[in-house]
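Posting for a labmate who doesn't have an account.
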Amino acid sequence: MSFLQDPSFFTMGMWSIGAGALGAAALALLLANMDVFLPKSRSATLEYLEDIDLKTLEKDPRTFKAKELWEKNGAVIMAVRRPGCFLCREEAADLSSLKPKLDELGVPLYAVVKEQIGTEVKDFQPYFKGEVFLDEKKKFYGPQKRKMMFMGFVRLGVWYNFFRAWNGGFSGNLEGEGFILGGVYVVGPGKQGLLLEHREKEFGDKVNLVSVLEAARKIHPQTSASDTK
């Protein structure tokens, strides 16, 4: 058993353990960056979205069905992951850059949040140029809610998104729940249905603005019988 007293044997053993740990870490990093391991989403239906209860953020809140948002002119709706998140604020600002063109089309821009903490929504509104409503049951984040936990912090795409938003001058805080992933919807009036459904696949996965505008241009506003006379 003299080999146990050989320093070179001990060194080789430690090197092997270190190499194994490094290999395991590299494998974990590789797997975390493969989209196949991302939380799977299930597409929403118009019927599902129509029945969602939303609340206004006034002093005396009003509860109403979400279909009110789009039943006449359609709507672009952002399901905000977390109002204080600088990545969410970046996407809100990007969507708000479309507001003049959406106004020309007569299509409103809205956002829903899943909680109202302190001044978080108020602090979010300078980045977002539309009305914001509360979705207490988090229905707009479904029908199958998806969470990205700490795996998000080892994804290269997330770090790219961090640096992009930081370089853009956006900042934020850590207040509130931020693991349930959000998204963006473009919904047509009446029964025209969903024209675009973007589900955030990781932190900072922004919707394509060209796709949003293309979908908004497909909206056919509802006309009443009096309008056609």
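Reply:
Got it, the structure tokens are right above this. Residues 1-33 form one domain.
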